């Protein structure tokens, strides 16, 4: 069955970078984009951007340009989210999800379990 | 960017009641709207896509409606497993913004 497996929790110092992963199982990896979201504690979700493994097309929310970078390792069906110049504002749970645009409009139909990022000295 | 305004922000209800959550877009999103449920400490789960279509496995007590800028999620005969937070999300161009969420609590 379709699963997205995210890497474990991270504790990182301010100013550093972090790279987290989202590994896809149970479907043809190149068929659907992988989406990334940020959720601050107790708050709503923000869409960071997406990466389509079929053609390496990448879209970013303007708010996260310069902060987030999406890359892929097709051999392992994994998409990576790298966050740079970390501050306490980056502390949050980060989710990946499968974007399904075969639905009218679109929907994120499968989600990873989330990666908790804590930025602290 | 399109803004998504959800209401109410929180709701205290009893099992068996019917609830309606609304989502207003800052411009016409032509039914390109999804709803998600998120339980405490868990990932969001897709409930509804294209404003009115239930995702696979979603109970029929859930229903979505709306058009233009106004959308609703209705839950008939609320069950204990329905408590949690609900979010709308538009797909009318990037960034795909989410509503602020509605927290459904047990009365």
Question: In words, what does this structure look like?
Answer:
The complex is a heterodimer of chains A (121) and B (107). Chain A is built from no helices and 11 strands. Chain A is mainly beta and 121 residues long. The mean pLDDT of chain A is 97. With 107 residues, chain B is mainly β. Chain B is 0% helix and 49% strand. Chain B is built from no helices and 10 strands. In chain B, the strands form 2 sheets. In chain B, strands 2-10-9-4-5-6 form a 6-stranded mixed β-sheet, with no helix packed on it. In chain B, strand 7 and strand 8 form a beta hairpin. The model of chain B has no long low-confidence stretch (mean pLDDT 97). At the A-B interface, strand 5, strand 9 and strand 10 of A face strand 4 and strand 5 of B.
Task: Give the key terms.
heterodimer; A: 121 residues; seven-stranded mixed sheet; B: mainly beta; 10 strands; globular
C-alpha-based Rg of chain B, rounded: 13 Å
**Structural category of chain B:** mainly beta
What's the total count of β strands of chain A? 11
Q: Helicity level of chain B, as a percent range?
A: under 10%
End-to-end Cα distance of chain B, whole Å, is 36 Å
Q: What average pLDDT do the residues of chain A reach?
A: 97
Strand order of the largest sheet of chain B: 2-10-9-4-5-6
Strand content of chain A: over 45%
Beta-strand fraction estimate of chain B: over 45%
Largest β sheet strand count, sense and barrel closure of chain B:
6 strands, mixed
User: How many individual helices of chain A?
Assistant: 0
Biggest interface: chains and residue counts? A-B, 25 and 27 residues
Q: Estimate the helix proportion of chain A, in percent.
A: under 10%
- Uncertain stretches of 5 or more adjacent residues of chain A: none
Q: Could you give the order of the helices and strands of chain B? A: EEEEEEEEEE
- Biggest pleated-sheet summary of chain A: 7 strands, mixed
Q: Mean pLDDT of chain B, as a whole number?
A: 97
Helix tally of chain B equals 0
């Amino acid at each position: 069955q379709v699963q997205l497996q995210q890497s474990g929790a991270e504790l990182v110092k301010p100013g550093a970078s972090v790279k987290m992963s989202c590994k896809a199982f149970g479907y043809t990896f190149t068929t659907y984009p992988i989406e990334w979201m940020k959720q601050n504690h107790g708050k709503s979700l923000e869409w960071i951007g997406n990466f389509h493994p079929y053609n390496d097309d990448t879209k970013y929310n303007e708010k996260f340009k310069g902060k987030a970078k999406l890359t892929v390792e097709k051999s392992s069906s994994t998409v990576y989210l790298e966050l740079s110049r970390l501050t306490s504002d980056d502390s949050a749970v980060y989710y990946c999800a499968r974007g399904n645009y075969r639905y009218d409009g679109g929907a994120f139909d499968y989600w990873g379990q989330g990666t908790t990022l804590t930025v602290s000295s | 960017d399109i803004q998504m305004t959800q209401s109410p922000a929180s709701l205290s209800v009893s099992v068996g009641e019917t609830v309606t959550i609304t989502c207003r877009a800052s411009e016409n999103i032509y039914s390109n709207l999804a709803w998600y449920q998120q339980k405490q400490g868990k990932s969001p789960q897709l409930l509804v896509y294209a404003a009115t279509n239930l995702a696979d496995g979603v109970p029929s007590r859930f229903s979505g409606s709306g058009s233009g800028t106004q959308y609703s999620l209705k839950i008939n005969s609320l069950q204990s497993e329905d408590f949690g937070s609900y979010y709308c999300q538009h797909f009318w161009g990037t960034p795909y913004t989410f509503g602020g969420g509605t927290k459904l609590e047990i009365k």
